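Appendix B. One record, verbatim.
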Amino acid sequence: MAVAICAALGLVSGAAAAAEWKPTKAIELIATAGPGGGTDVFTRTVQSIVTKYKLVTQTVTVVNKPGGSGAEGYIYTKSQAGDPHKLVFGTSNAWQQPLVSKLAYRHTDLTPIAAMVQDEFLLWVKQDSPIKSAADYVQAGKAQETKMGGAQSKDTDEVLTRMIAKEAGIQITFIPFKSGAEAAVQLAGGHLDSHVNNPSESVGQWKGATQRPICAFSPRRLPEGAKVTQTESWHDIPTCLESGLNIPQFQQPRTVWLPGKVTPDQVAFYVDLMRKVQATPEWKEYIARTSQTDTFLAGDAYQAFITEDLERGRKVAAQEGWLVSD
C-alpha cells in the first residue's frame, strides 16, 4: 500500500516537478480560523498528510490567526512578502472581506496557489416545516417575511441570503450568529425559519431529525454516498435550481496562498505539493467526512474563479450598501 501511494504521488507532479526550488527552512501554515473551525481542519489535514508522507524535508507547523474573521492571517501573510515558507489557508473571504471592510490588505497582495475543495451550501428548514422544496420556500416567503440565520454579517451566509431574497422577490431578515452551529441550534428551537449551513454544520441535526435540507446551491447533485438518515443521502437532495430557485451555484472554496513577491518556481513547488496531498487516501477520507466537494483549481482556472466570484460579491455588496472598496 505504501509503495503504491508513493508511486501515485510521484505520478501527479507533472511539469511542476521540474521546478528546482525547494524549502530551505521550516514551513508555517497559517489558518485564518480558530482551532476546530473548518479552515483549521483543512489546514491541519494538509499538514498531517505532508508530514506523514514526508512530502517535504522541512518541519511543517500550523499557526492559528483567526482575528477579524480571518483578516489577521491575510495581513500577516502580506507582511511576509518574498518569504516562500509561509502559506496562508482560508476561503473566498480572502477576496470578499476587503469589499465590505476597511482592511490593510487586498487579495492581490497575496499569491494564489490553489482552491482545493468546495464547501457546499444548502437551504435548511425545521424538520416539521410544511416546506418541502425551494418553490415552497419562495411561496411561503411571499406570504410573510422569513427569518434566516447564519454565521456573521456581510459574509458568505448573508451574501447568499440576499441573493435568495432578490431572486425570489421576498423579504428575508438575516440574523447573524457567531457560527453556523449556533444558527442550527436556533432553527431546531423554532426561533428561525431557515439557514444556509454547510453539510458538516448541520449533519447532526439532520440525523437527529430536528431539521432537514430542501436543496443544494450546487450546479449538480452532491456525490452519491452512504445514507445520512434512514432513507436519504446528500445525493437525494435536489439542487436549488431543479427545486424552483434560480441560483444554480454558490459554493465556498478552501484556498491556499503564498505571500506576494515570490517566484514562479516557488509557486510551482506548492501547486505540485497540494496535488500530492490530494492524491492520498487521507485526503479522500477528509472529503467524505466533511461532506465537501473535491476539486482543484490553480493557475488561470483559479484566477478566473476569483474574478467571477469577486464580481458576484461586489454586486451584492453594492446593492446592500456594504461596499467600501472597488
